[in-house]
């Protein structure tokens, strides 16, 4: 079944199409939920919430742009909304000043080890780290998504790096100019 047929059948609330949508895209969306969550159970809950949102809002998808990209955006927004409601993203009072945005060397890193380090971070640092380093959002975009300032975004990223400074896999992933 093509993506167009799949989406159209989901819009008609056909159960088989919804099952196929879940089967086809749940691994990708679970990966997104996992990197923003503290553990696997929380990620599974977020994945469920993502699919409920996708099924409820699939009528809004109008085939402009990538369907997978649309769902990924819903996944990120669903997890962020959960943290905003639970007040896990309180801002830090300390600002590290201007932190340069720089590129970094890509090196083969054990994903499960890196994910464990990321999941150990406090929520506000983990979310900022994921949005900036792994998803490529700018500090301006992150501040808009989280309702904070750009300085707070930079500060949270710097603190994430400081908290895991001794861990080789983590250091290799964070841009070198961020302290």
Brief overview:
With 179 residues, the chain is mainly alpha-helical. The protein has helices spanning 3-11, 15-36, 40-57, 67-86, 111-120, 123-134, 139-146, 150-163, 168-173.
Keywords for this structure?
2 domains; 9 helices; single chain; Arc Repressor Mutant, subunit A; 179 residues; disordered C terminus
Architecture overview:
The chain has helices spanning 3-11, 15-36, 40-57, 67-86, 111-120, 123-134, 139-146, 150-163, 168-173. It has 179 residues and is mostly helical. It folds into two domains: 3-86, RNA polymerase sigma factor, region 2, helix turn helix motif (Rna Polymerase Sigma Factor, Chain: A, Orthogonal Bundle), CATH 1.10.1740; 111-173, Arc Repressor Mutant, subunit A (Orthogonal Bundle), CATH 1.10.10. Helix 3 (40-57) crosses helix 4 and helix 7 packs across helix 8. It is elongated, with a radius of gyration of 18 Å. It starts with a helix and ends in a 6-residue tail after the last helix. The relative contact order is 0.12.
Please name the CATH architecture of the largest domain.
Orthogonal Bundle
* CATH class group of the largest domain: Mainly Alpha
Q: List segments where confidence is low: pLDDT < 50 over at least 5 consecutive residues.
A: 88-108, 174-179
**Helical segment tally?**
9
Write down the CATH topology of the largest domain. Answer: Rna Polymerase Sigma Factor, Chain: A
Number of strands: 0
SSE series:
HHHHHHHHH
């Amino acid at each position: 079944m093509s993506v167009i047929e799949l989406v159209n059948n989901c819009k008609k609330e056909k159960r088989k199409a919804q099952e196929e949508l879940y089967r086809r895209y749940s691994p990708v969306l679970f990966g997104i939920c996992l990197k923003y969550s503290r553990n696997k159970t929380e990620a599974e809950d977020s994945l469920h919430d993502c699919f409920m949102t996708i099924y409820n809002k699939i009528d809004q998808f109008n085939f402009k742009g990538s369907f997978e990209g649309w769902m990924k955006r819903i996944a990120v927004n669903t997890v962020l909304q959960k943290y905003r409601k639970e007040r896990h993203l309180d801002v830090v009072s300390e600002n590290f000043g201007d932190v340069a945005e720089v590129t970094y060397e890509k090196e083969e890193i054990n994903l499960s080890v890196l994910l464990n380090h990321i999941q150990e971070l406090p929520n506000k640092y983990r979310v900022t780290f994921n949005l900036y380093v792994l998803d490529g959002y700018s500090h301006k975009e992150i501040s808009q998504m989280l309702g904070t300032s750009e300085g707070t975004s930079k500060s949270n990223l710097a603190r994430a790096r400081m908290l895991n400074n001794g861990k080789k896999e983590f250091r290799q992933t964070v841009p070198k100019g961020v302290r």
